[in-house]
């Protein structure tokens, strides 16, 4: 494997080694699993169209690539027939809008009918894998879906200050995105982001390319077929059948030959699935909201609500189409934040039911917290919701595991093979409840420093992402995520995992037999062993984690903008590049990516000088609480420093300001060069205050 840092050889041992190291050191780093059943995980002005045949041709990149998985023990518990049934159900449901090949190991004898992709030209010959016992298996689907009309999204003079909103109902072609962003074929993050900008119309007023850019269009609308077009679709090819050649004796073949089952586990009984839902293009819906695909972003949080989920929600409001009058017709998003009930630490504490009183207690705490109180404003009640999390109730709500998960209580909190023992037993078998102690790893709720990392909350969040998506649909996002653009076309992509889907049932049963381990890399192993990896699509880091490769010393000859050598650069921007945040602002921060993942750093404030919600008079009461707390902390720190150095203590009083209350004047001085984290926080806050429009030039209407 080459050591060339100009490219990312994703199959290299160096990458595997780094993944293993990052698995241990940066626990929250993990692939984004697109989990769509609405418009939110994992969640878009038609001017010129292009030929719909372009994405029906083959490409040179390997669609079956999957990165190495930590660990080697097999996890499979399903027979080949069950794997085939899962694939057939997902494809029939429209959850496979892709030309990626089905792994030949699945052994499909019939080409599945795929309502989510257009039909290929009649000259197409399906790929076959020959074996002595079979005429072959199908690895491609038979498309019967709507035509795809690819969009030319861009601003036009004189309205070029802001990009256009994505067209409601538009769809992102993941095959096209991977063609430009697959680093196994030496694609740069910098180039990928440019394609994402141009194809998404985010290069408004800055379209410097003058050549034909049709190949960079990756967003399309589905145009339903008329009766004549439907009739013209050829019948699917005939099934393959086992055959015995003249003079040969029939062979006794194990139908599960080649599958590697988990050691010590029995084959699972067949899963039962409901009738696959009908795949419906957005143009055939009565309104923008698809009831089979609810648009919900899920986030999970434990401990006090801080500036981290505060920024995640502000960025959500700044970028997403929440259905206001100024944003036009769209399906209204919801972004539930699921705080854990109390510390959520031991099983003796977890079963606290989410009673009305528990819910009221949660809201009482949220109302008093200056970081969370703004989102309880009536203006946001339809798009941001807070819900309590109770692990016992949540696991009991999953039919696939509700009757068996309690057998794993001793090792319930398992992530990547790391098990937190939160329920120690006495010698007589009785359970001892661990009393809350200051800063112990079991009762800790939230990470205050790098040394007091809250691993248990992270393990819970791994479980929560799959539980929430399986129960309610939607996309799960870590709370250390910042939205950078509208996700409309990602919602339009109906790939698994949809709620109550076949793949979800398989994953929960597999996790149950593997210690309920929901670490992202372990889940990757589940799908790889079951040859279902293409059903749970792993997208390139450039779309959601654009800095990761440069922090690992890859592509440093042509890094993206901004150039981070470590994730801390977001909070402490190096002097060499510290002129960029203020000069470029929001538009200069990984423009084209859908979101940014800042990888923990819960202990680093976004805005050290103004470490409080700066949202204006509407939120003055709770802002004052945060401001006074900050002033006291700074005064205490100054007094401690003075005592250490022997210097005279300076007054902590801020000078009066004739234009705003004295308590709102900045208690500390800004850095001469503001960090990226500070610039983004103040950008989002200015939108809520009414000082600036959002990312798409729309003003917040408080009268709605």
From TrEMBL:
<dbReference type="GO" id="GO:0000462">
    <property type="term" value="P:maturation of SSU-rRNA from tricistronic rRNA transcript (SSU-rRNA, 5.8S rRNA, LSU-rRNA)"/>
</dbReference>
<dbReference type="GO" id="GO:0032040">
    <property type="term" value="C:small-subunit processome"/>
</dbReference>
<dbReference type="InterPro" id="IPR029044">
    <property type="entry name" value="Nucleotide-diphossugar_trans"/>
</dbReference>
<dbReference type="InterPro" id="IPR051733">
    <property type="entry name" value="WD_repeat_DCAF13/WDSOF1"/>
</dbReference>
<dbReference type="Pfam" id="PF04488">
    <property type="entry name" value="Gly_transf_sug"/>
</dbReference>
<dbReference type="InterPro" id="IPR007577">
    <property type="entry name" value="GlycoTrfase_DXD_sugar-bd_CS"/>
</dbReference>
<keyword id="KW-0812">Transmembrane</keyword>
<feature type="compositionally biased region" description="Low complexity">
    <location>
        <begin position="636"/>
        <end position="658"/>
    </location>
</feature>
<protein>
    <submittedName>
        <fullName>SnoRNA binding protein</fullName>
    </submittedName>
</protein>
<keyword id="KW-0472">Membrane</keyword>
<keyword id="KW-1133">Transmembrane helix</keyword>
<feature type="region of interest" description="Disordered">
    <location>
        <begin position="636"/>
        <end position="673"/>
    </location>
</feature>
<feature type="transmembrane region" description="Helical">
    <location>
        <begin position="31"/>
        <end position="49"/>
    </location>
</feature>
<comment type="similarity">
    <text>Belongs to the glycosyltransferase 32 family.</text>
</comment>
């Amino acid at each position: 494997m080459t050591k060339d840092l100009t490219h990312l050889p994703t199959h290299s041992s160096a990458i595997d080694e780094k993944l293993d190291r990052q698995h241990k050191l940066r626990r929250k780093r993990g692939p984004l699993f697109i989990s769509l059943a609405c418009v939110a995980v994992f969640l878009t002005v038609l001017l010129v169209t292009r030929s719909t045949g372009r994405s029906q041709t083959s490409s040179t990149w390997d669609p079956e690539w999957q990165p190495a998985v930590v660990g080697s023990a097999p996890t499979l518990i399903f027979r080949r027939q069950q794997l085939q049934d899962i694939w057939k159900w997902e494809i029939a449901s429209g959850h496979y809008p892709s030309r990626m090949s089905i792994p030949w190991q699945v052994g499909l004898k019939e080409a599945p009918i795929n309502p989510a992709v257009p039909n290929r030209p009649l000259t197409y010959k399906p790929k076959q894998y020959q074996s002595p016992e079979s005429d072959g298996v199908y690895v491609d689907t038979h498309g019967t879906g709507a035509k795809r009309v690819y969009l030319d999204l861009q601003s036009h003079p004189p309205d070029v200050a802001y990009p256009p909103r994505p067209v409601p109902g538009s769809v992102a072609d993941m095959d096209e995105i991977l063609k430009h962003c697959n680093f196994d074929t030496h694609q740069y993050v910098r180039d990928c982001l440019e394609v994402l900008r141009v194809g998404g119309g985010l290069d408004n007023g800055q379209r410097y390319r003058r050549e034909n850019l049709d190949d960079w269009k990756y967003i399309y609308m589905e145009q339903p077929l008329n009766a004549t077009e439907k009739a013209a679709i050829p019948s699917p090819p005939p099934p393959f059948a086992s055959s015995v050649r003249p003079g040969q004796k029939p062979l006794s073949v194990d139908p599960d030959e080649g599958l590697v089952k988990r050691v010590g586990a029995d084959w699972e009984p067949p899963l039962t699935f409901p009738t696959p839902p009908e795949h419906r293009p957005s143009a055939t819906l009565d309104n923008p909201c698809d009831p089979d695909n609810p648009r919900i972003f899920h986030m999970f949080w434990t401990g006090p609500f801080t500036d981290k989920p505060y920024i995640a929600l502000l960025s959500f409001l700044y970028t997403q189409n929440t259905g206001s009058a100024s944003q036009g017709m769209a399906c209204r998003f919801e972004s539930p934040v699921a705080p854990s009930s109390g510390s959520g630490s031991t099983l003796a504490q977890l079963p606290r039911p989410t009673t009305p009183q528990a819910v009221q207690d949660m809201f009482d705490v949220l109302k008093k917290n200056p970081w969370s109180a703004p989102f309880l404003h009536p203006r946001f009640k339809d798009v941001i919701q807070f819900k309590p999390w109770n692990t016992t109730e949540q696991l009991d709500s999953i039919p696939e595991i509700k009757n068996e998960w309690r057998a794993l209580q001793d090792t319930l909190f398992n992530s990547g093979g790391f098990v937190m023992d939160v329920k120690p037993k006495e010698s007589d078998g009785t359970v001892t409840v661990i009393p809350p102690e200051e800063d112990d790893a079991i009762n800790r709720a939230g990470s205050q420093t790098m040394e007091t990392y809250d691993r248990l909350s992270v393990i819970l969040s791994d479980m929560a992402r799959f539980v929430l998506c399986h129960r309610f649909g939607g996309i799960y996002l870590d709370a250390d995520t910042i939205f950078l653009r509208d996700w409309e076309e990602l919602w339009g992509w109906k790939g698994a995992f949809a709620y109550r889907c076949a793949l979800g049932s398989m994953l929960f049963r597999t996790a149950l037999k593997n210690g309920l381990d929901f670490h992202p890399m372990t889940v990757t192993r589940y799908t790889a062993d079951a040859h279902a990896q293409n059903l749970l699509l792993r997208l390139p880091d450039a779309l959601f984690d654009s800095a990761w490769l440069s922090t690992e010393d890859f592509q440093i000859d042509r890094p993206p903008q901004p150039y981070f050598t470590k994730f801390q650069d977001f909070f402490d921007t190096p002097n060499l590049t510290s002129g960029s945040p203020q000069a470029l602002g929001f538009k200069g921060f990984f423009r084209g990516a859908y979101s940014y993942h800042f990888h923990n750093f819960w202990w680093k404030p976004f805005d050290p000088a103004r470490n409080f919600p700066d949202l204006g008079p509407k939120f003055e009461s709770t802002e004052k609480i945060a401001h006074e707390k900050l002033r006291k902390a700074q005064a205490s720190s100054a007094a401690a420093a003075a005592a250490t150095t022997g210097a005279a203590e300076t007054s902590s009083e801020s000078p009066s300001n004739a234009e705003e209350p004295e308590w709102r004047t900045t208690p500390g001085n800004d850095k001469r060069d503001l960090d990226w984290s500070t610039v983004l926080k103040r950008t989002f806050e200015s939108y809520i205050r009414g000082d600036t429009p959002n990312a798409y030039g729309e003003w917040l209407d408080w009268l709605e």
